[in-house]
Design brief:
about 600 residues, alpha+beta, D-amino Acid Aminotransferase, Chain A, domain 1, six-stranded mixed sheet
């Protein structure tokens, strides 16, 4: 009887492995991109998660797709267009991703708590070289914050970017890999609801087929959390964000509307002036002693005042109070970058400023005081040095534990591309767990020699630059896809130019193994799993944020390069095809 049952189950598994793309199916070993729609079937069979979806997209004519791009651009307030084809994940895939992000967020917060407590146990255990960490923190201009940060206030938004790598025998549907980590003021936080609304408006059949959850629950629970955290400090929550003139797009406006509908007041901040006056919505913050208050003025100029217990920061955290002592170095560099953007200044002045702003290739040092004095002595503009900017006293209240905060200063450096190399080790050390989501294979061009000096690793340099098709080079301080070179996509001439840059400053660059990104009907892309990390844990949004670009581009996923935003749907297992339904009670999930 047992033998008969064994052979019956084996037969079922073999049938399933050939008919339903089960992981036991043998796959070719070449590193080709995974097709999100057809998997490894070479276009012969639609994956279960896309059954009932792809036919609606393929029924659109090219003219209809172009019309939809224009319509969704309007619906997104001119920020970007939405691809009328969603990225679809199964419940099982999303559960793995969600648990991986939760684990990663917990490890990052445990590291930050260890770091700002002054214990710094990670150094005793050799988790990350001290020279590397110092360099990373200096690059972010955050080396002075260890005097001011209160460990219990280490709460932040977190959104790692994840790709699906090529299929292999171990991962027949491709392995999910983290590309980089994004803390605090992150893109996508204000787009999840709007993206879903737009997709449902133009392609309503998708949601009916998948029965995918929406992102509303995440925001509702998050806002309730903020209100409770504020009560713990005997006050109410407020959201702080840039004045409209300084916002890069309309995402902040979408967050403002969301928060105000939930009863959370929004206060606008201009980081370059002292925010004493009333903002355009007749609201302002006022510090009295060790308490923070929200003042509101109605149409009759009647003022009401209520105590604030929690601050949600929807802006670069340093800009809350640019003149704070912990921001001294960041403030100097921000002023210098502003000077370089001015068109009326002499090239000789700008060249001198650029020269001073260069990072020392060995130590990571920047001559901040020299830059400050150079600007004060040579610029025709009045500098902001010495002025009180933003909301003076706000950061000290948070660091004294008088109010709580999400996205405070001192945490930007954990998004550095060199710091990223060590996060798997942080998971092992602080959580005593194996990473659920792995990094891409990543290395640095710098190494420590016998004398303890950091020098270029010639062996790695030659290995990487002799195999252009196998690697991606990244500048660790690059933003938005700039200073990223995808080996298979760049010319030999550009590759040689990058090699010279690496030779000059090896510690500033990392290399990653090239992983062909999964494809979606002529596009490649990534997903960002947005979460809130706090002392009470990690809350991950029910739906990721996504972006895609054409496969014929430079290999970098960047919406600004004629890309699209994409909605992600999580398909419930009960809605999947007959093949799954036939075997779901027999085969383990």
């Amino acid at each position: 009887m047992i033998k008969a049952k064994f052979w019956f189950l084996l037969g079922i598994v073999l049938i399933y492995s050939f008919s339903c793309q089960h992981p036991l199916r043998k796959l070719a070993q070449e590193r080709t991109a995974f097709d999100e729609i057809y998997g490894t079937s070479q276009g012969q069979r639609v994956r279960l998660v896309y059954e009932g979806i792809i036919e609606h997209y393929e029924a659109l004519t090219q003219a209809e797709k172009e019309d939809l791009a224009k319509a969704t651009l309007r619906d997104f307030d001119g920020d970007n267009s939405l691809l009328p084809l969603p990225k679809v994940l199964s419940e099982i895939e999303f559960e793995e991703l969600s648990k991986g992000v939760e684990q990663r967020g917990k490890a990052l917060r445990a590291f930050l708590e260890d770091h700002y407590s002054g214990k710094k146990k990670y150094l005793d255990k050799g988790i990350i070289p001290e020279a590397v960490l110092e360099r990373v923190i200096k690059r972010a201009g955050e080396e002075d914050w260890d005097k001011f940060i209160k460990p219990s206030n280490l709460n932040f938004w977190y959104g790692p970017d994840v790709i699906r790598g090529p299929p292999s025998s171990e991962f027949p549907n491709g392995q999910f890999l983290v590309v980089e980590d994004n803390p605090s003021f992150i893109g996508g936080m204000g787009d999840l609801i709007r993206a879903r609304e737009i997709l449902d408006k133009y392609m309503p059949a998708y949601s009916r087929v998948t029965e995918s959850n929406g992102p509303e629950k995440f925001y509702k629970e998050l806002i309730n959390d903020y209100k409770q955290r504020a009560k713990n400090f005997e006050g109410r929550p407020v959201l702080l964000q840039y004045i409209t003139e300084l916002t890069a797009d309309n995402e902040e406006e979408r967050i403002r509307v969301l928060m105000e509908k939930a009863g959370i007041d929004v206060v606008f901040v201009n980081p370059y002036t002292q925010n004493k006056g009333w903002q355009k919505n007749n609201k302002r913050l006022l510090i009295e002693g060790d308490k923070l208050f929200l003042e509101k003025k109605n149409k009759a100029n009647r003022i009401t005042k209520s105590r604030v217990g929690y601050v949600i920061t929807n802006m670069n955290p340093q800009d809350l109070e640019l003149s704070h002592p912990g921001n001294r170095k960041y403030h100097i560099m921000a002023e210098a970058e502003w000077e370089l953007e001015q068109k009326g200044l002499k090239n000789s002045y700008k060249d001198g400023l650029k020269s001073l702003m260069r990072v020392d290739s060995r130590t990571g040092n920047i001559p901040y005081e020299e830059i400050k004095n150079y600007i004060k002595e040579n610029s025709p503009y009045k500098s902001s040095f010495g002025q009180k900017l933003g909301i003076p006293g706000l950061i000290d209240l948070t660091n004294q534990g008088k109010i709580g905060i999400t996205n405070g200063p001192g945490m930007e450096f954990v998004g550095d591309k060199e710091f990223y190399i060590y996060i798997e080790e942080f998971i092992r050390y602080y959580l005593n767990e194996e990473p659920i989501l792995k990094n891409m294979d990543t290395g640095s061009f710098a190494r420590i020699n016998k004398e303890g000096r950091e020098v270029i690793d010639g062996r790695k340099l030659n290995e990487v630059f002799n195999k252009k098709g196998n690697f991606v080079i990244k500048d660790v301080i690059g933003r938005g896809g700039d200073a990223v070179w995808v080996g298979p996509k760049v010319t030999d001439e550009v590759w040689e130019e990058v090699k010279l840059k690496v030779r000059e400053n090896p510690a500033r660059f990392i290399f990653q193994e090239f992983n062909p990104l999964s494809t979606l009907s002529g596009f490649i892309g990534d997903i960002r799993l947005i979460s809130d990390v706090s002392s009470s844990g990690v809350r991950v949004a029910d739906i990721p944020w996504a972006r895609v670009v054409g496969m014929d581009g430079d290999g970098k996923v960047n919406i600004s390069a004629n890309g699209f935003e994409a909605t992600v749907l999580v398909r419930k297992l009960s809605t999947m095809g007959s093949c799954y339904k036939l075997f779901r009670d027999i085969l383990p999930q």
